[in-house]
Structures are given as C-alpha cells and as structure tokens.
Design goal:
The protein is α+β, with helices and mostly antiparallel strands. The chain has one domain: Glutaredoxin (3-Layer(aba) Sandwich), CATH 3.40.30.10. The chain has eight helices and four strands. It has a four-stranded mixed sheet with strand order 2-1-3-4. The relative contact order is 0.24.
Length: 124
C-alpha cells in the first residue's frame, strides 16, 4: 500500500496527488495537520533519508521559528522541531512498502511505483 504524508493544500502535494491519480495508483493520504506526525514515522524516515533531507528549511514555518530554534540543528533537535511543527517535515513523504521518498519527482514516482500502478486503483 502506498501512503502519502503531507498537507492537503500544499502545491507540491497537489502535483503528487495528480500524478498518483493519473497513474491509477491506490494511496492513503495522511495529513500532518489533522493526523499529526507520529514520532515513530519520523525516526523511521530519518533512518532512510536523514534529517537534513526531511527538515523543510525553505517554508514559512522555518522562517517563523526563533533564532534559537534555528541554530545548532542536529538530529535530536530536528526531530523535536518536526514533532512540534509538522509543517517542518518536507512534503510529500511517500511510503511504499518499507521505502521512503521525500519530495515530488515524476521520474522517481514512475520508477518506484511502476509495479504497483499496474495493479492498483485509487481509493476515493
């Protein structure tokens, strides 16, 4: 099962949803804002992609943090911040089986979802 984590109104999320729908990929959407980001997910994702990849430093949430919150970032502090401010987790996070992909790239989705897309249909 394909799971996509993010925030519904994010433009990058909309691109990912469109791609998944156009390619008939069944998915479950988990909204950071509504459902939160479970600590276990973040820790698991970090094992695969690292905190530097997962932490969104370009968004408005990052810019609104205090200087103290933005300095001396390490993995433990990044986890703490992402748990406190789910918008700091880059979007989308795509979980396919035990693999995790961060961000949206049609090429990455095509390569990693090609087997699933031939077998799955989107859940409405």
């Amino acid at each position: 099962m394909v799971k996509i984590f993010g925030i519904k109104n994010c433009d990058t999320m909309k691109k990912a949803f469109t791609w998944l729908e156009q390619n008939d990929v069944e998915y479950v959407f988990i909204d950071y804002k509504k459902d939160g980001v479970i600590a276990a997910h973040i820790v698991d994702w970090l094992k695969q992609v690292g905190w530097e990849t997962l932490l969104n430093r370009r968004g408005l949430t990052w810019k609104k943090l205090t200087e103290a919150e933005r300095t001396n970032i390490n993995q433990a502090k990044a986890i703490e911040l992402m748990q406190a401010y789910p918008s700091l987790v880059k979007r989308p996070v795509l979980a396919v089986d035990k693999k995790v992909f961060v961000g949206f790239s049609p090429e990455t989705y095509q390569v990693n979802l090609s087997e699933e897309s031939s077998e799955l249909k989107k859940i409405k």
